[in-house]
Amino acid sequence: MTTMSDDFDPGREAWIRWRAADEGVDLDQPDDLDDDFEPIDLNVAMTRLLVRGESRDDVAKALHMTRDEVDVRIAHATALAEAEAIAEREWIVRERLLDLTRQASSPELSSFETNRLGLLLDLAKLELELIGWTRRRAASA
C-alpha cells in the first residue's frame, strides 16, 4: 500500500509552489473545494434558475425533478413569502398605531389635529382587520 509520504517528491512540490506563485495562488490558504460539494438548497437553486428566465420545465430538467414537484415548491415558497410579508406589514401597522396613539394623547392638540389623528387611527385599525382577514383566508385555503 502506498501512502502520501511514499509519493512525496520534493522536486514536484517545488514545481507546484513555483506554478502557484506564478499564478498568484496562495497554497497555504484553504481552497474552496469544500464549497463545491456542499448540499444544494433546491429552493435556492430553483429560484436562481427562475430569476434567470428559465421555464418551469427547464428548471425541472436541471434539478432532476418533475414539473409538479417544481410547482409545489414554488407554491410553498410563495406562501411562505406572503406570510412573512403579512407579518412584517402587521408589525409596521402596530408600531404606527402605537405612535399615533401617543400623538393623540398630547393635550396641546387642536381639534383639527385630533380629528386627523382619529382618522389615521381608524385607518390603522381597519388595516389590522384586513391583515387578520387575509390570514384567515390563507389558512382556509
Explained architecture:
- With 141 residues, this protein is mainly alpha-helical.
- The chain has one domain (39-140).
- Helix content is 73%, strand content 0%.
- The protein is built from 6 helices and no strands.
- It has helices at residues 10-23, 33-36, 42-51, 56-62, 67-104, 111-140.
- Helix 5 (67-104) packs antiparallel against helix 6.
- It is elongated.
- The mean pLDDT is 81.
Shape: elongated
Proportion of residues in helical segments: over 70%
Number of strands: 0
Mean pLDDT: 81
Strand content: under 5%
- Major β-sheet profile: none
Number of helices: 6
Order of helices and strands: HHHHHH
Beginning-to-end CA distance, first to last residue: 64 Å
List keywords for this structure.
6 helices, 73% helix, 0% strand
Topology:
Layout: H1 10-23, H2 33-36, H3 42-51, H4 56-62, H5 67-104, H6 111-140
Helix pairs in contact: 4-5, 5-6
Entry summary:
The protein is mainly α and 141 residues long.
